Amino acid sequence: MGIWDWKDEKVKRGVRKVLKQNLCCGKEDRLAVLTDTYKERVGELFFWEATNLNIPVFHHTYRPTGRHGLEPPESVWRAVFGDEFVSELKEKGLFEKILRKEITHSDELEVKEILLESTSPTELPTAVIAVNQHSISHTLFRKLCSDFLSMRFASMPLFEPFMFYTSLQANWSMVARRSREVASLLTDAVRAKITCPLGTDLSFSLEGREGLADTGKICSPGDFGNLPAGEAFIAPVEGTAEGVFITRYAPDRELSAPVRLIVEGGKVKEAVGEDEFASFINSVIHRERNADNVAEFGIGTNEKAQVRTNILEAEKILGTCHIALGDNSAFGGNIRANLHVDLLIEKPTIVLTFADSRKFTLIEEGELKV
Q1: pLDDT tens per residue across span 286-312
Q2: Cα radius of gyration rounded to whole Å, the chain
């Protein structure tokens, strides 16, 4: 089949599988399908299949944000949370601060209080599917949905229908087992060191941070994850990353030459390599507040993931790892930024160090040891 052969029965079965098995949607749910204009057609598939399954659903399409990690536009907030909530945020000057990612802890508490006062639980979605070109996972919007209001939230940035034939065919029980086991090891570790054949040599502290598992099962209130799923991830302690990491891939293409990212004091100081992508990285880390932060360390656990030129699938490939720059405030870190960019590292060797000084090789040249 061609990627855009929307009538293919395997695609329709894949959509139904996502709704029923991954998100566990039923007639008692209220499903929100959010798509930017790049992915509107995919959103339509989810809308119509949900309708055929008698799942209450609405589909909202919005203008693309232009970058991973930016808050979604006002129309999305109004569609999900209602006009009264957004209008009150704007009256109090909080909405613009949210969009700029400048809210303080006390601001966030006020936002939550307004949300409770201005919305009714029976009118809010119980589950959200966000299919878009640019991820809204690392945003206050997503945090409010899943962490505060206990909506189930499936994030699908850069999604392409070929994934119904690859990573979405995974054995989810095995993915869940691997992901939880790796997440537990990351939680117990106090330090990680990554090397790879291209020359990666990066280490950082994990002390006090919690490893999280992206299992593909988004069935309990408040569950959040990618679809396709299959990783364990953690926010390294800010300011502790040192060394260099090297990637052959941008989030959406193979690079003509590898890019080398030099890290000091937990921040990327410079990117060297393919001119176009290195220039992009250098531009954002020098112009955007906190974009240089080493935000995430993730490990792929999906045995069916295989495409390296799409980071939604690439970061799930069994035995790979990835480093993200920018925002980590939504999964245990302390940094807010208008950016979250994941970068793939192939055939890594990963050594974890624990509090008793014991070391464990989690991955050796791309082979996961659990």
Answers
A1: 999 999 999 999 999 999 999 999 999
A2: 20
227, exposed or middle or buried, with CB in 10 Å at 0-12, 13-18, 19+? buried
End-to-end CA distance of the chain: 35
**pLDDT tens per residue, range 54-73:** 999 999 999 999 989 999 99
- pLDDT, one tens digit per residue, over 342-360 is 999 999 999 999 999 999 9
Query: How far apart, in whole angstroms, are the C-alpha atoms of residue 277 and residue 299?
Result: 23
- Minimal CA–CA distance to 338: which of 165, 19, 99, 28? 99
Strands 152-157 and 127-132: parallel
Buried b (16+ CB within 10 A) or exposed e, 107-119: bbeebbebbeebb
Q: Are 212 and 297 in contact (CB under 8 A)?
A: no
**pTM across the whole model:** 0.88
- For residue 354, the cross-strand partners are 189
Question: What ranges do the domains of the chain cover?
Answer: 9-163, 169-368
Predicted pLDDT of residue 330: 87
Distance CA 349, CA 342 (A): 18
